[in-house]
Amino acid sequence: MSILIDENTNPQPGPTSRPLPDVQERVRRRESSASVKQAARDLRKRATNSERILWGVLRDRGLDGYKWRRQHPFGRFIVDFYSAELQLAIEIDGPVHDFQAEADKERQDILEGLGVRFLRLPTQIIEQDLAAALQAIRNALPSPAHRERGRG
Q1: 62 Cβ contact list (under 8 Å, min separation 6)
Q2: Which of 22, 57, 146, 150 could be 65's S-S partner, Cβ–Cβ 3.0 to 4.6 Å?
Q3: What is the pLDDT of residues 58-77, one digit of tens each?
């Protein structure tokens, strides 16, 4: 069933009807969501060296059997790596983050308010001591039971 809505009319809600959502707001959200998804796709294509190194380990459940997504959109934000199962985001902090520390903190605070935990790893540790970076990720897992998962 389709309903034609004339945007110039503003029907008065009755006792059993709900107010109509703002059509322009829905369109804006959809366009914004599409642009964030496209930005995430573009970031995947232009991965940094440290992102490629870490993704080589995380992909295909390569780290202790956990599924990870790279350049994962969260509303208007994109995190470098995210495990929904662990509710854990990994951010790789390279030189660009020196100039956007306040914006990074604001974004992290918002996402942590939604229950996402964060682990920030400097580019250098991934490129120079991958084993230490992987240990830091394992240490960020939520419980000892999670740490043992996937080990024979």
Answers
A1: 56
A2: 150
A3: 999 999 999 999 999 988 88
Give the Cβ contact number of residue 83 at 10 Å. Answer: 19
DSSP annotation string for 73-134 = EETTEEEEEEETTTTEEEEEE-GGGGG-HHHHHHHHHHHHHTT-EEEEEEHHHHHH-HHHHH
Q: What's the CA gap between 101 and 67, in Å, rounded?
A: 28
Scan for tokens 């440290």, then name that residue: 50
The CATH classification number of 23-148 equals 3.40.960.10
- Sheet of 77-83, strands arranged across: 69-74, 77-83, 88-93, 117-122
Q: Which residues does 18 contact at the CB level (< 8 Å), separation at least 6?
A: none
Backbone Cα Rg of the chain: 21
The answer to whether the beta carbons of residues 118 and 58 sit under 8 Å apart is: no
Give the global pTM: 0.69
DSSP state of 12: P
